[in-house]
Amino acid sequence: MDNPFRYSGVVIGDLFVDREDEIAALHRAFRAGEHVFLYSPRRYGKTSLIREAFRRLPPKEPWAYADLSRALSLQSFVELFISAVLHGTESSADRVRRWAREFLSRLQPRLVLDTSGRAQVELGYSPRLAEPATLAEALDLPQRVAEDLGVRLAVALDEFPTVRELGGDGLVRAMRAAFQMHSQVSYVFAGSQTAMMEQLFAAERSPFFRMGRPLRLEKIPRDAFVPFLVDGFRAGAMDLPADLAAELCQRVDDHPYFIQTLAHELWARSRGRGIPIAQQDLTEALSAVVGWHDAYYRRLWERLTLYQRRCLLALAELGVGASLFAADTVARFELKSASHVQRSLEALQREGLAERRNGEYGLADPLFPHWARAAGLVSGGAERE
Ligand SMILES: Nc1ncnc2c1ncn2[C@@H]1O[C@H](COP(=O)(O)OP(=O)(O)OP(=O)(O)O)[C@@H](O)[C@H]1O
Ligand SMILES: [Mg+2]
Predict the structure, then answer these.
(1) CB 366 within 8 A of CB 258
(2) Do the Cβ atoms of 133 and 106 come closer than 8 Å?
(3) How far does the chain reach from its first CA to its final CA, in angstroms?
(4) Which ligand is nearest to the CA of 264?
(5) Ligand 1 neighbourhood includes 183 CB (under 6 angstroms)
(6) Ligand 1 within 6 A of 50 CB?
(7) Three-state SS annotation for 270-293
(8) Burial of residue 344, with CB atoms counted within 10 A of its CB: 0-12 exposed, 13-18 middle, 19 or more buried
């Protein structure tokens, strides 16, 4: 059988753990025509949540999904957006052609239909996207289609912060102007740059100010992950005791992606051995996972300034909630001054190494302390747990 623990790509169906409340919240928003800002640090499971929530919708509630990080220009964004909406409705080729004629008359997209009848949209050279009316026509497509079908449509725009790079403030404003009139469409704006996402819906000057409800994704409760881990090992004829499964979660600070990575490695190396899994196996699997990421951490470490490194080590050693700004901490870790700490933390946050939660900074990467220990950067020498 295949390894049941996936650490890359989207997980749905049997591979998806928990998030019942979040799925219910999304479904409620879709049915109420509300918009949702879904955000979290990297790799907490935003994309998987969206896809699983969509998968569980009945066929009469269509949805469209676009990963905006795939767009490299305003034009490819528009192509992606239109294609996603046309795919989502699973309509016949004739109907798609009619929509293109009636709803996209300025853009006049070329439709390439693949064998399953899915439309791929191409805009020819210079489709006049700088003209507001042309862009508005594309952005209005979800509502036009939903009206035509007499349904509500859910549209997810994943990696949403990329829109600023693609079309600047103008695109963000055009989206707001269009979407606020869409009574039959519910949008999910998802992104992992948490500060930018918060700014988007919470800053009064933002065009998206209070346009929807924020949904900050947290880690998955250990109680939900443990049975999934135990079952996955059992399916491979292995015995992972529940307390060891809980320890696995704890060692990577309950981070969903790292739990899956570590479980994948432990499963792969324990398969077929015929003896119960022990703590030593977990330690070895963790060392192996740290080893995979060694080159990444080394490069990262080289990139950081001296104060950023010290700050990161202080975070790793002190844990969440410790104030790095306190005078004795600044002195102990040689952080120079509170303003140096502030600047370093902001840089670490941009690198995805630190995160800010309720005003407090913590470590965002649970593997880093293991690597730092293995590399001899923090007290304790090599990994010993
Ligand atoms: N509900 C879940 N059940 C099981 N594993 C999960 C779940 N959510 C996330 N994971 C694990 O985390 C990995 C990353 O998930 P996903 O790509 O959905 O996160 P993301 O927040 O969209 O990431 P990114 O920030 O890179 O966009 C998955 O491949 C899986 O290993
Ligand atoms: Mg994602």
Answers:
(1) yes
(2) yes
(3) 31
(4) 1
(5) no
(6) no
(7) HCCCCCCCCHHHHHHHHHHHHHHC
(8) buried
Distance in Å, CA 335 to ligand 1 centroid? 34
The one-digit pLDDT tens for each residue of the chain (385 residues) are 899 999 999 999 999 999 999 999 999 999 999 999 999 989 999 999 999 999 999 989 999 999 999 999 999 999 999 999 998 887 788 888 899 899 999 988 888 877 776 777 888 766 677 788 889 999 999 999 999 999 999 999 999 999 988 988 889 999 999 999 999 999 999 998 777 888 888 888 888 888 899 999 999 999 999 999 999 999 999 999 999 999 999 999 999 999 999 999 999 999 988 888 999 999 999 999 999 999 999 999 999 999 999 999 999 888 766 688 888 888 898 888 888 999 999 999 888 889 887 778 889 999 999 999 999 987 654 444 4
Q: How far is the CA of 159 from the centre of ligand 2 (A)?
A: 7
Q: Are 108 and 99 within 8 A, CB to CB?
A: no
DSSP per-residue letters across 221-271:
PHHHHHHHHHHHHHHTT----HHHHHHHHHHTTT-HHHHHHHHHHHHHHHT
Q: How far apart are CA 270 and CA 282, in angstroms?
A: 10
- Ligand of minimum distance to the alpha carbon of 228: 1
How many CA within 13 A on the CB side of residue 278? 4
Nearest ligand by distance to the CA of 11 = 1
Q: 24, 126 in Cβ contact below 8 A?
A: no
**228 alpha carbon – ligand 1 mean position (Å):** 15
Q: Is the CB of 48 under 6 A from ligand 1?
A: yes
Q: Is the CB of 225 under 6 A from ligand 1?
A: no
- What's the gap in Å between 46 CA and the centre of ligand 1? 6
Contact 179, 139 (CB under 8 A): yes
Q: Which ligand is nearest to the CA of 14?
A: 1
Interstrand relation of 185-191 and 153-158 (parallel, antiparallel or unpaired): parallel
| Nearest CA, atom 7, ligand 1 | 45
> What is the C-alpha to C-alpha distance for residues 377 and 145, in angstroms, rounded to an integer?
57
249 CA distance to ligand 1 middle (Å)? 15
The answer, yes or no, to whether any atom of ligand 1 lies below 6 A from the CB of 8, is yes
Does 343 contact ligand 1 (Cβ within 6 A)?
Answer: no
Q: Which atom of ligand 1 is nearest to the CA of 51?
A: 18
Amino acid at 232: G
